[in-house]
Amino acid sequence: MVQAVLIDGECIERLLGERPLPVEHVMAPSILVDGRFHTAGCHWLRRKSMVRPVHSTLVAHARRLANYIGFLRNDRGLDHPDERFADLFAATEDDVFAFYRARQFHAETAVSSAAWRAQLSTIKQAHEFLRATYDVPIPFRVVTFINPAGYASTTAPELRARTRTGSRGNPITPGYAELLVQGALRIDQHGHQSNARTVDRDAAAVSLALGSGIRHGTLTNITTYEIPPVVATPFTTMRIPDFITKGDAGGEAWIFSHRLKLVHAYINGARAELIADGRPYRPESPIQLDDADEDRWTATVDGTRRSVRWAETTDEVRRRLVNPDGSTPILLLNSYTPDPLSYDQVGTITATARDWTRLHLAPDFPARFRTHDLRHTYATHLTVCLFKGAVADYVHPDFVQAYAPTAITDAVEMAKQSLGHASEASTRLYTMHASKFLHVPLEHFIGEP
Predict the structure, then answer these.
(1) Are 246 and 153 in contact (CB under 8 A)?
(2) N or C: less crowded end of the chain, CB within 10 Å?
(3) CA-CA-CA-CA dihedral for 168, 361, 207, 230, to nearest 10
């Protein structure tokens, strides 16, 4: 793999005595095979660069594709001098499954489940590009389904990541979830509330994680712009940066609407007061926002005006952004200064709410409950709601059938999209306890209207 570089026109003119011809510069990495550009691979990377020019994502895709091409040529013998009869063009189902077994089951070459899911995403997208561009059949089974935003997505069920035993998590019932939120608010069983500055923020963090299932890192760095409004229906959608299945660039996930109430109460209450009374936010190398909405932000970065989607914005850039009023757009702030919380501080919010709940509300609340268990709880609650048909009432009539599962495993497949998993096997680790929650009345999951 080689990285693209800009052509220095003045340097070429000095060396050759003529101005170079104008060319379109696309800063996408390229793949070389025996010193020659791999045409199909380079065309795919170029197209991805033009559609979504996220440098880190493009480099990751290029490395994974080069790894796959290298396996097909070196291990499977698909190294014909004519590219149209080699590697990607010549790969059969046996070749793809050989690569799958090598990366998931062979001790010397196996990678983690997460690494394989990323590799499979690259393989699937590259072969879908070959089918659309060169009319080359995909050499493995691809299944199409409808994601929460109503768009068609694809998965390769026979190539899903090897089942892991970790990340089983500890989901809690809707009743315990309410007690945990109450614990975050520091309200005891008699209705008395502790006088702490952090209660509104802590309740917002716990409630948002219960309602959206976002990962710990995303909870730390999500912005106020990305929080959807509270709606009258039990479910809404939210674009989650975690989302990896569709081009590594975010996607729509189902959100429990009632969980957003405390989030907006914090944004408009304690958070707004802290910003109004505190000092301006001054990160290192600040990026001053010119404009922002729920989908993207616009600013001048290094002399160039850029418009970037939130789903494609890294944590490092998020923490450099400054609103026009001088505040940070990041949701969760410190108690006394309007600065973003750290990763560890967000974890402490869950631990503090858990310990308060055990001490003042429910002594049998899980003692080791952590921030990641909020995600497990969301996954379990969403799976149950999907299985009971609660979501089907709030989708377009054309998609109702797609949200009418006949088995709990179908509901798991639907929940996978909202969790941002490329593999159903990963989702099953989050929803393995869902059957134990089926007896709970549906209204306990979706809250008050």
Answers:
(1) yes
(2) C
(3) 140
Amino acid of residue 177: A
Whether the pLDDT of residue 89 is over 60: the answer is yes
Listed in sequence order, the residues at least 6 apart from 371 whose beta carbon sits closer than 8 Å to its beta carbon are 209, 216, 219, 346, 347, 349, 350
Give the pLDDT of residue 246: 40
Task: Tell me the pLDDT of the chain averaged across its residues.
Answer: 85
CA distances from 371 to 31, 197, 378 (A): 40, 21, 11
Instruction: Find tokens 């097909």 and name the residue.
Output: 72
pLDDT at residue 448 tops 70? no
Q: State how far the Cα of 271 lies from the Cα of 268, in Å rounded to an integer.
A: 7
% of the chain at pLDDT higher than 90: 51
Distance, in Å, from the CA atom of 395 to the CA atom of 417, rounded to the nearest integer, reads: 15
- pTM for this entry: 0.64
Mean pLDDT of 22-36: 73
